[in-house]
From TrEMBL:
This enzyme's EC code(s): 2.6.1.-
Recorded superkingdom: Bacteria
BP-aspect Gene Ontology terms: amino acid metabolic process
Subunit structure: Homodimer.
Keyword rRNA processing: no
Domain named Aminotransferase class I/classII large: residues: 32-392
Catalysed reactions listed for this entry: L-aspartate + 2-oxoglutarate = oxaloacetate + L-glutamate
GO molecular-function terms, A-Z: L-aspartate:2-oxoglutarate aminotransferase activity; pyridoxal phosphate binding
Name of the protein: Aminotransferase
Organism from which the protein derives: Donghicola eburneus
Cofactor(s) needed for function: pyridoxal 5'-phosphate
Length: 400
């Protein structure tokens, strides 16, 4: 009898975390590594948010809170949904968790039974399928290729739904591609969901405020109000507010689901960090004027990376609508051999050889469910991105 749970056989460690850790280890050994694996802004948390956290400490806000968040923050989240998304929620419909990942995990743990299926468009954030498996469900992966801008079509969604489908997980702008769905494209998907009333929507809106070129963000319950009673709208402060380490995510949805998630949380982590909650309160209620200048910088970096990657032999890189990722296709590199002698048969081979030979750390596409690709996070300096593109161009030019 194994000492470890058989549930672990259904999941694997996060590839994005593994790549980031590998880059750190090589850098500690003295290698000049450019790490492009971590999905976090390189900007510091804005000063007014940090000051709110310090004030909370000075005021003794260091005790346990309600498991699902302080009332003030839940009210601020309700106000945010009303202000930004035209969605009306009460505090009883809101939960605050230790990061967006815990929101998703709690929801899946609270709702999935053996045999339940969850439709997930690929490319997907690496944790979606594993969290579904860990909760006892079955992920149904639908490949959404570059020819459709990495976006799911209504016909694909229709074909993926069965009587056992419980959730459709949706993410726009997307990690890893940066692809965003317009309101019209989203309406095509919600029309399908209206025909299948047993399917709920879990929408991951973490990159809502990171949008470029006039892209207008929309979320499913906003586009189709008839889905309001079976939609869990997930968001957080990690990305737009540069608060990844503060670990605050939140969601709003039907009270019965929120109550079930709260029950899970009460027996796992209990409340999120009290200090982080007061910082998140200031993030949502305080000045938002830093977001647009940050987006201008992100857009400049996006354009720099897209141009640099499209100049590399064998690489095609679409222009994303938002987030801070690109997801280039490397079909033109497959089957070749690197200068160091590695046969490039998969995108994992490409990423491994690129790290070993040029000291550039990226995440291979198979980790996100669609190959042959890799993901770059351009949430780092222009200088690092320029040098990384130069190294990638050299690596590709040397493939034979």
């Amino acid at each position: 009898m194994s000492f470890l749970s058989t549930a672990l056989d259904r999941v694997k460690p996060s590839p994005t975390i593994a790549v980031t850790q590998k880059a750190r280890e090589l850098a500690a050994m003295g290698r000049d590594v450019i790490g492009l694996g971590a999905g976090e802004p390189d900007f510091d948390t804005p000063d007014h948010i940090k000051e709110a956290a310090k004030a909370a400490i000075d005021a003794g806000k260091t005790k346990y809170t309600a498991p699902d968040g302080i009332p003030e923050l839940k009210q601020a989240i309700c106000a945010k949904f009303a202000r930004d998304n035209n969605l009306g929620y009460t505090p009883a419909q809101v939960i605050v968790c230790t990061g967006g990942k815990q929101v998703l995990y709690n929801a899946l743990m609270a709702t999935l039974n053996p045999g339940d299926k969850v439709v997930i468009p690929a490319p997907y954030w690496v944790s979606y399928p594993d969290m579904v498996r860990l909760a006892g469900g079955e992920p149904v992966i639908v490949e959404c290729g570059i020819e459709n801008g990495f976006k799911m079509t209504p016909a694909q969604l229709e074909a993926a739904i069965t009587p056992n489908t419980k959730w459709f997980i949706f993410n726009s702008p997307s990690n890893p591609t940066g692809a965003g769905y317009t309101a019209d494209e989203l309406k095509g998907l919600t029309d399908v969901l209206l025909r299948h009333p047993h399917v709920w929507v879990m929408t991951d809106d973490m990159y809502e405020h990171l949008a470029f070129d006039g892209f207008q963000f929309a979320t499913p319950a906003q586009v189709e109000p008839q889905l309001y009673d079976r939609t869990l709208t997930v968001n957080g402060v990690s990305k737009a507010y540069a608060m990844t380490g503060w670990r605050i995510g939140y969601a709003a949805g039907p009270e019965k689901v929120i109550a079930a998630m709260r029950k899970i949380q009460s027996q796992s982590t209990t409340n999120p960090c009290s200090i982080s909650q007061y910082a998140a309160l200031e993030a949502l209620n305080g000045p938002q004027d830093f977001i647009e200048p940050n987006n201008v910088m992100f857009k400049r970096r996006r354009d720099l990376v897209v141009e640099g990657l499209n100049a590399a032999d064998g690489i095609t890189c679409p222009v994303p609508n938002g987030a801070f990722y690109v997801y280039p296709n490397i079909a033109g590199c497959i089957g070749k051999t690197s200068a160091g002698g590695t046969k490039i048969e998969t995108d994992e081979d490409f990423a491994t050889a690129l790290l070993e030979e040029e000291n550039v750390a990226v995440v291979f596409g198979a980790a996100f469910g669609l190959s042959p690709n890799f993901r770059i996070s351009y949430a780092t300096s222009d200088e690092a991105l320029t040098e990384a593109c130069t190294r990638i161009q050299r690596f590709c030019a040397n493939l034979k």
